[in-house]
Amino acid sequence: MPSRKSDVSKQSIAGIDRLIHEPARYLIMAYLFVVESADALFLQRQTGLTWGNLSSHLSKLEDAKYVDIKKEFLDKKPHTMLQLTDDGRKAFKQYRLNMKQALEDMPKL
Amino acid sequence: MQIDADLKKIQHKVYISYFQDGLWDILLGVFLVGWGLMIIFDFVAVMGGVWVAFYFIVLGLKKWLTYPRAGYIKITEARRQQMRMVILGVVLFLLGLSVFALFSVATRPAWLSEYFMLLFGTMMAVVIAMLGYWWKVTRWYAYAVLLFLAAASHQWLDVPLNLTFTVPGGVIVLCGLVLLVRFLRRYPKTNGEGINAVA
To answer: What pLDDT, on a 0 to 100 scale, did the predictor assign at position B180?
Structure first.
């Protein structure tokens, strides 16, 4: 008979957002979580992702409405600012809670 | 929890990224060198103007050198508010200290006159250490210790007063310049192609 603890663990793991669980996307969301907004160059420098990778992950996060991408011009040069949406912020907080719960529920070796 | 520690590390990395170009170190160093020069040449008003001008030069350099290389962030409103309060507190404290130093010469008690520069240097060192703490830039603790040692050496080893500020200030400017050169090498300017590829 499965224990109550393992049931909780299964629930926690099942609740983990797979979109955020990917390490590169987690990193992007974590950086955006601690600031109000950042430009693409800052994210690229900090995460060490290639431009192609960064663009692809950002598109997925934008499709999920977790990230808002704004194109603007600064001194006549294109400038892309990125910001977590309210949904993105909530999802990131929930992801962290679920991960903590899942890790706490794991049996001690 | 590891997951909390990771987010704190990221937050710390974001905060110190603002100081990795060494420009604020250079501004602090210029401020201290200015104090030393003011003592030597006695030109208070000119020095005030130079500090204000340097502050705007640093802001310009941030826009011209730092953001095109390392990117730009807007910090959260709470953090912005916290930084504003810290800067306001420091400016008011330094203004108060300067006014007191300039206008209390005749009225100070003897013990205060004897230890005045040590106390003054220590207070400035405490302010620098507090800024380092608030901005999470640990090398500023070393700057605070350096300034305290310089003030103590004036008090007990009779090192000339002007050196109390110019030497630590000069060392800090040099540290800032080293950081700036490292920063410029580490982050070459991008041509913007990659940025346009995003989304």
So the answer is: 95
